[in-house]
């Protein structure tokens, strides 16, 4: 550990205990006590009661007994105090302006409201521990105020083990939009709701990254974390309740609904390498509308700097001038350059975000209320493509513009907007909820520091490359009613939903995609680094669907609940789907409950998958390869005999138990199995020689290889989720420990291959399969096999100390095979990693909280690609890397450059962030307290 950090840590620790000792040791004391009950009058045992002396910030803590009684006999005299009461399954309550005197004990009577969940049930009185399905509840107010992360995806990545998200690098658009997944499945198999309403997806399809290749997900970072009250993550299939996509689970983002107060948040941090500067300024404010209404507004600005790690250049992979060392050194010297002048930016993209969000609710009468919410996000991003160098692409060097090569910038402008409006109305005993939600995501590319080499000296260095747009409209109506006298209480809900979607690709300027034929022989057409969308790729498509559902949840007895839901949906582009869900929860003892469920589900092919088309330039060490991604309407697709896309279908079984052996300890464990048929993936790189019809179509399309979206794989996912939490008063403070873990295994049950490609799907020709090695391995082992998060914290006086440990399980996958080589590619194994975070928070006064912390204290990084290759295997069964290198030299007449880009792009974005240690400071001021 750094000596300076050690000295600072010792000083802070001394300050904590010295403050506690001197303050509590010299002051007269008073008694505080009372009872804690639920709103129904039942005593709440094990509730943590903390008395906070606001002038000093000093705290005394106690826990309620079996009768709900607590006692704090030696609190400070005077005040004011804030008394905070917390207990799992109840909303935290704070009583303010409590004053104590030495001659009279103060007795409080506190009633806690249940902390109900909105996802996985349509009852309005279900708590987390009473839910028949596993739900994680994330308190964003607490996490955002102290944690190192500010992006929503990264906050969740460090909070929910079954949730995974890593920033992508050198993956075109995915550098700007973090893909995320649940339970090791694809990004598009998780449904996201905001305030219980369906959120729109991004327009982007992930194509080159390590996560979610061929999938469309949600851009969670368009939502300001400071605008969120809490997030509920349902870890179970719920398509019968919420519709398409909810195969792995559902995330519901609940926005703040405060009608007063607010906060100002400032966060900044930087990596130990001195790059990746991150800053966030955010402002939240609540306003009262009328007597009972509210308007909550949030605006923020954040910046994230680019990062680069372990850059190097290998003569085998990416030399600048020559793969001969003498020639390389001579050319570098002649031009007054070193490899540092050709540094490849290979980490996080540079990002600027501007966000505005609102949440509004107001009663229109005693029986009717109006609500609305929405927001806007503008993002400007800059990622970087690999250098264009004289060694690999001499024809794409224009001496009068970039004589020594250039590193293209892939820039994006993302506009994301959403708005929702609805009413809730009481119709006798029934409750009606009618709403309409509109969402839009637009991603516009512009490429800079590059050129179209076929224009020669007339080439510009910046291009408008076109872009993508997705728009969604959802109209929903739901009727629900609780029948308290039917059995022990039965809730019935039914409703309908109508959804329309629009997707378009708009072309870039002509110079961004056209081959003018005026450059050097062999020059590549279009903007180098990212070819713009051409008129043939420009397309617009629409579809609509209508669905209806019935949802019944019945308490057979007070200890036994059964829930069921059925849903029918009809899509304009592929037909209909009928699915259902059944779950149950049984309380066997006061401290033990069990739950289980079975559901069927589906995921409709996204419009993006059905319509996307683009010609992509993939640089390899001896030139470029043009790969076309062709949609279902393409002549190339029809010539290849690729079937039209159909929906994915799933069957999900889960079983678990909830154990509460004491009020201070809760423990849940849930096992699951998810079988998915007809999963949609992106095919392998299919080139010449398969069928004459495909050969002719590729030539006509000016593509070397083709890829297609196809229902090709049937999979099985099995896993286990564990969540444990322990909290109790220790000494003069509160101790909290929580452990959450996910263990996950994906298996490919079978592969469906069209007849024309059957001969390719064999072990004899791994580099040219219908579904290639990499795609299959990303499905099976591309997510961590396990992920464990251990948090331990102690809060005393004005201070709170937290230590977080995160263990990422092993990840493995085949490397890219851009050429494609018949031998296939390296099998890369990224071994498990354990990181440690440390943070110290200080409250000089109740409204102000200051936090200093270190993320990844010991600078743990994942295996590099070169290390992962040594951990794994070389292609086609060679025993050693040296043996394969000799074979490669003999067959291809040049040294092996595999794994691809191991020198300039040393990491894959599989497992965890590779930026290393990150130091940060945060300040939050809460006004209106």
UniProtKB/TrEMBL annotation:
Alphabetically list the UniProt keywords. Answer: Cell outer membrane, Membrane, Receptor, Signal, TonB box, Transmembrane, Transmembrane beta strand, Transport
- The signal peptide, as residue positions, is 1-30
Q: How does it sit in the membrane?
A: Multi-pass membrane protein
Pfam families found in the cross-reference section: CarboxypepD_reg (PF13620), Plug (PF07715), TonB_dep_Rec_b-barrel (PF00593)
Classification via InterPro entries: Beta-barrel_TonB, Beta-barrel_TonB_sf, CarboxyPept-like_regulatory, Plug_dom, Plug_dom_sf, TonB-dep_rcpt-like
Q: Does the keyword Transport apply?
A: yes
- Domain TonB-dependent receptor plug: start-end pairs: 129-250
- Record domain TonB-dependent receptor-like beta-barrel: where: 428-857
- Subcellular compartments: Cell outer membrane
Question: What family name appears in the similarity comment?
Answer: Belongs to the TonB-dependent receptor family.
- Name the record gives this protein: TonB-dependent receptor
Identify the taxonomic lineage of the organism of origin: Bacteria, Pseudomonadati, Bacteroidota, Cytophagia, Cytophagales
């Amino acid at each position: 550990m750094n000596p300076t950090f050690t000295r600072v840590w010792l000083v802070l620790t001394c300050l904590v205990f010295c403050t506690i000792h001197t303050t509590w040791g010299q002051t007269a004391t008073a008694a505080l006590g009372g009872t804690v009950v639920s709103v129904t009058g039942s005593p709440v045992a094990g509730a943590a009661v903390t008395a906070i002396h606001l002038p000093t910030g000093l705290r005394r803590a106690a826990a309620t007994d079996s009768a709900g009684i607590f006692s704090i006999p030696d609190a400070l005299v005077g005040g004011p105090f804030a008394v905070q009461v917390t207990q799992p399954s109840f909303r935290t309550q704070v009583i303010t302006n409590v004053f104590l005197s030495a001659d009279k004990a103060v007795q409080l009577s506190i009633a806690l409201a249940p902390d109900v969940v909105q996802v996985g049930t349509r009852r309005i009185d279900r708590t987390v521990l009473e839910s028949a399905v596993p739900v994680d509840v994330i308190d964003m107010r607490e996490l955002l105020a102290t944690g190192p992360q500010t992006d929503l995806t990264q906050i969740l990545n460090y909070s929910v083990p079954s949730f995974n998200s890593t920033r992508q690098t050198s993956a075109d658009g995915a550098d700007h939009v973090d893909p995320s997944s649940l339970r090791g499945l694809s990004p598009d198999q998780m449904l996201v709701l905001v305030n219980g309403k369906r959120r729109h997806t991004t327009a982007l399809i992930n194509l080159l990254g390590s996560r979610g290749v061929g999938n469309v997900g949600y851009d969670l970072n368009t939502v300001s974390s400071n605008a969120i009250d809490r997030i509920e993550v349902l870890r179970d299939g719920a398509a019968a309740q919420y519709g398409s996509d909810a195969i792995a689970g559902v995330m519901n983002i609940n926005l703040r609904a405060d009608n007063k107060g607010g906060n100002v948040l400032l966060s900044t941090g930087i990596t130990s390498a001195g790059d990746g500067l991150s800053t966030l300024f955010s402002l939240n404010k609540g306003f009262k509308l009328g007597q009972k209404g509210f308007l909550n507004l949030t605006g923020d600005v954040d910046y994230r700097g680019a990062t680069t790690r372990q850059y190097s250049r290998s003569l085998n992979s990416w030399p600048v001038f020559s793969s001969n060392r003498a020639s390389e050194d001579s050319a570098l010297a002649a031009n007054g350059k070193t490899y540092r002048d050709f540094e490849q930016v290979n980490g996080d993209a540079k990002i600027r975000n501007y966000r505005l969000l609102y949440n509004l609710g107001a009663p229109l009468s005693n029986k009717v209320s109006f609500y609305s919410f929405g927001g806007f996000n503008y993002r400007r991003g800059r990622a970087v493509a690999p250098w264009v160098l004289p060694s690999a692409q001499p024809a794409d060097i224009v001496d009068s513009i970039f004589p020594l090569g250039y590193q293209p910038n892939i820039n994006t402008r993302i506009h994301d907007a959403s708005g929702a409006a609805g009413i809730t109305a009481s119709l006798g005993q029934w409750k009606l909820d009618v709403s309409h939600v509109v969402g839009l995501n637009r991603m516009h590319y512009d490429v800079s520091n590059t050129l179209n080499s076929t224009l020669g000296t007339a080439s510009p260095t910046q291009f408008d490359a076109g872009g993508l747009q997705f728009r969604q409209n959802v109209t929903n109506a739901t009727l629900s009613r609780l029948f308290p006298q039917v059995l022990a209480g039965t809730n019935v809900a039914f409703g309908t939903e109508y959804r329309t979607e629009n997707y378009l690709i708009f072309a870039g300027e002509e110079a961004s995609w056209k081959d003018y034929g005026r450059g050097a022989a062999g020059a590549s057409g279009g903007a180098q680094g990212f070819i713009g969308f051409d008129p043939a790729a420009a397309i617009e498509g629409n579809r609509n669907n209508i669905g209806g559902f019935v949802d019944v949840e019945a308490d057979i007895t007070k200890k036994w609940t059964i829930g069921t839901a059925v849903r029918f949906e009809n899509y304009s582009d592929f037909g209909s789907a009928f699915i259902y869900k059944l779950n149950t929860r049984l309380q066997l003892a006061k401290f033990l409950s069990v739950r289980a469920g079975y559901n069927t589900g589906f995921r409709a092919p996204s419009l993006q998958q059905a319509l996307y088309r683009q010609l992509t330039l993939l640089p390899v060490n001896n030139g470029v390869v043009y790969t076309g991604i062709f949609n279902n309407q393409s002549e190339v697709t029809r010539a290849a005999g690729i079937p039209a896309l159909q929906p994915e279908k799933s069957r999900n079984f889960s079983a678990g138990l909830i154990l509460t052996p004491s009020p201070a300890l809760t423990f849940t464990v849930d096992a699951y199995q998810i079988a998915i048929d007809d999963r949609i993936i992106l095919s392998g790189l299919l080139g010449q020689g398969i069928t004459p019809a495909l050969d002719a179509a590729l030539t006509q399309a000016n593509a070397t290889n083709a890829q297609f979206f196809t229902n090709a794989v049937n999979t099985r996912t099995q896993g286990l989720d564990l969540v444990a939490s322990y909290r109790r008063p220790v000494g003069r403070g509160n101790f909290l420990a929580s452990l959450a873990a996910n263990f996950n295994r994906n298996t490919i049950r079978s592969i469906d291959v069209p007849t024309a490609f059957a001969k390719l799907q064999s072990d004899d020709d791994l580099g040219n399969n219908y579904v290639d090695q990499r795609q299959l391995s990303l499905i099976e082992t591309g997510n961590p096999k396990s992920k464990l998060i251990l948090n331990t914290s102690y809060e005393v006086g004005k201070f709170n100390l937290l230590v977080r440990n995160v263990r990422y399980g092993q990840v493995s996958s085949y490397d890219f095979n851009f050429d494609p080589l018949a031998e296939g590619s390296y099998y890369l194994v990224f071994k498990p990693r354990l990181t440690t975070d440390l943070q110290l928070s200080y409250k000089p006064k109740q409204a102000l909280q200051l936090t200093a912390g270190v993320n990844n204290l010991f600078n743990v990084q994942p295996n590099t690609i070169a290390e992962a290759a040594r951990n794994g295997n070389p292609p086609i069964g060679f025993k050693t890397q040296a043996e394969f290198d000799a074979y490669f030299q003999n067959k291809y007449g040049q040294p092996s450059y595999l794994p691809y880009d191991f020198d300039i792009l040393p990491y894959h974005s599989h497992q965890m962030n590779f930026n290393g240690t990150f130091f940060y400071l945060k300040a939050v001021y809460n006004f209106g307290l």
